Amino acid sequence: MNTELAVVLALLVAAIVMFAINKPRMDAVALIMLTVLPLTGTISMGQALAGFSDANIVLLGALFVIGEGLVRTGVAQRLGDWLLQRAGRSETRLLVLLMSVVAGLGAFMSSTGVVAIFIPVGLRIAQSTGMAPSRLMMPLSVAALISGMMTLVGTAPNLVVNSELVRHGQAGFNFFSFTPFGLPVLILGIVYMLFARRWLATTHGGDAGTKSRPTFSDWIERYGLAGRAHLVRIESGSPLDGKTLSEIDLHALGVNLVAIERARGFSKDMIGPTAKTELHAGDVLLADVFARDADVGALRERLALQEMPLRGAYFSDLTQEIGMVEVMVASDSPLVGKTVVEAAFRDRYRLRVIGVRHGDTAIERGLLDQALRIGDTLLLIGPWKEIKRLRFVSEDLLILNLPAEIHEVVPVPGRSLQAVCCLLLMVALMVSGIVPNVQAALIACLLMGALGCIDLDSAYHAIHWKSLILIVGMLPFSIALQKTGGVELAADGLMALTGGAGTYAVLGSLFAITALLGLFISNTATAVLMAPVALAIAGDLKASPYPFAMIVALAASTAFMTPISSPVNTLVVAPGNYSFGDFVRVGVPFSVVVMVVSVLLVPWLLPLHP
Questions:
Q1: What pLDDT score does 344 carry?
Q2: Which of 524, 546, 525, 523 lies closest to 535 in space, CA to CA?
Q3: Residues with Cβ < 8 Å from 361, sequence gap 6 or more?
Q4: Contact partners, residue 411, CB within 8 Å, separation at least 6
Q5: CB neighbours (10 Å) of residue 607?
Q6: Is-contact 319 379, C-beta < 8 A?
Q7: pLDDT reported for residue 293
Q8: Residue pair 352/380 in contact by the 8 Å Cβ criterion
């Protein structure tokens, strides 16, 4: 071992130790190593900074933006809602669907982002079914990790390994080269978790019943709103067509106009009504009939209104467009002593009062004629943008509570179709090879921006810069180890360890070392270090580099064994109330299963000597 190699290995060990103790944070460690390595003389500063110009780094950043576009337009949330509808109360069906959806979505966007999206979905399911969250959170993280084995862009280690292949003069993997390995692992993962979930069910019961915010359902019951919501469309020839709300006395009819849904081209606008708002044929009215004795059928016939179905109680199926907020009348508010009608909430805030409580008593009759008192609690309803605006325009009302549903509101719900089309276009371009992968991703990003799925501020915010810096900062180690003979040394050591036991033993050893190294450092850094070793071993065996590169990529995604093996695992620890032992008990056996399957499948589907 020469002096230069000894220095590089010393720095590598120091980096691993800092990664293991998480001090300083991982991206800071990467930057330190990027700065220090050129001082050893093994690589130049230009070589140390080469990662910033790597196409795969740009591709990874673009994929973060694509994923954010799917979140902002509600595509990911709709998948969660579909999951709730399809699963019903069957835990087995729920687990199969949950893992399938998470793995499918994670194949095209950040697995960490997918888990962040589905944790509230899983907790909501657990709350509504009475299931322990621990039975869902672990399958969620397992499926997210398996999603990295589904496509080339499923996880950063795949791109790192592919980049190393290209750097060695190979063509690299195709977009779906990983799918034949990921699908069997996913099926095995689902079957495995159907049995392994029992190890998590009773020891850690979770905290599904704890709610930090009230829900629409809570307020519907508390303020007696059940049965008051109606959705109607103004038909042609209606006496409301062309009239402003100031010309129509809906209050006299016992009707509160909550919001107006108006078509605008291919999209719809949700309007907070004011006195000057003019109604038109085709408008859909969200109306609250607070008069208990109102003849709704006769009213619809007289005003030429067509009843439309509501699937949830009191507009709870329209939570993307309509929100609620609970406020209190301040002690110095000029609203004190005024009735709800006199306070002109509609014109002042573009919100409607649908509930009033004097102390613990909910007012159900004569709602709009109630004189407001200091400390009265009011329930307001209207478009979310007006609710968010309320905190900046009102000093007369104190905001007490926002509903839990506010966390589920997506910024641009009307652009989900456009986002899906951008995603499909990117996949088609990548599969066809018409343009490079990074160019396909950039085209999709630009189209998402042009179609309003995402804006520049959100795009920059979506990029996980910590991950990118980590990859860029660790790439110089790969160059330094190759220049100082470290890669050849590691390859020779592994070959000596297996002692000519055969290709399967070499692949198994390579998988095991990669997976074990991933217990201490990130799977991305593991891929950076092990990919050159894998290709060197392939060279020594005069074999195709693809099976060895694939083994490293699959092993890097086999991060099931500890809660610190991957950010995906770390995210589910608290909501699942897991211990370190839970991950060991569930993750270690499945990691062995994945290793066996990978070692058997890889040389079969990717021949060693094509």
A1: 84
A2: 546
A3: none
A4: 72, 458
A5: 12
A6: no
A7: 65
A8: yes
The dihedral over CA atoms of 352, 355, 359, 362, expressed in degrees to the nearest 10, equals 160
Per-residue confidence (pLDDT) for residue 173, from 0 to 100: 92
The residue behind tokens 């074990």 is: 516
Can you tell me the distance from the alpha carbon of 475 to that of 377, in angstroms, rounded to the nearest whole number? 59
* Distance separating alpha carbons of residues 477 and 479, to the nearest angstrom: 5
Q: Where are the domains of the chain?
A: 68-207+420-462, 216-318, 322-403
The 3-state secondary structure of 453-482 reads CCCHHHHHHHCCHHHHHHHHHHHHHHHHHH
Give the dihedral sign, CA 323/329/335/339. positive
Dihedral pair phi/psi, residue 570, rounded to 5°: -60, -35
**Angle separating helix axes 55-72 and 156-167, nearest 10 degrees:** 150
The token pair at 507 is: 């692949």
Distances (CA, A) of 170 to 41, 148, 157, 164: 29, 22, 17, 9
Question: Is the entire prediction scored with pTM above 0.90?
Answer: no
Residues of the chain with pLDDT under 70: 1, 20, 80, 113, 116-117, 120, 124, 127-128, 201-212, 265-267, 292-294, 499-501, 520, 564, 610
Architecture field, domain 216-318: 2-Layer Sandwich (3.30)
216-318 and 322-403 in the same fold: yes
Give yes or no for a contact between 217 and 290, defined as CB atoms under 8 angstroms apart.
Answer: no
In CATH, the number for domain 322-403 is 3.30.70.1450
**549-596 per-position pLDDT tens digit:** 999 999 999 989 877 677 788 778 777 888 878 888 899 999 999 999
DSSP for 297-352, please give it: HHHHHHHTEEEE---SGGGGGGTTTEEEEEEEE-TT-TTTT-BHHHHTHHHHHS-E
Q: Return the structure tokens found at 372.
A: 């407001």
- Give the rounded distance of the alpha carbon of 251 from its chain centre: 43
**pLDDT per residue over 6-20, tens digit each?**
998 899 888 878 876
**Residue-level pLDDT at 117:** 67
- Which two structure tokens, joined as six digits, stand for 11? 């720095």
Alpha-carbon span 281 to 259, nearest angstrom: 15
Find, among 511, 534, 520, 523, the residue nearest to 470 by Cα. 523
CA angle 23, 24, 27 (to 5 degrees): 130
Q: What is the pLDDT of residue 433?
A: 81
If 0-12 CB within 10 Å is exposed, 13-18 middle and 19+ buried, where does residue 124 land? Answer: middle
Distance in angstroms (rounded) separating the CA atoms of residues 108 and 61 = 13
- In degrees, to the nearest 5, what angle opens at C-alpha 590 toward C-alphas 560 and 491? 75
Please give the backbone phi and psi of residue 263, each rounded to the nearest 5 degrees, phi first: -70, 140
Alpha-carbon distance of 315 to 368, in angstroms, equals: 20
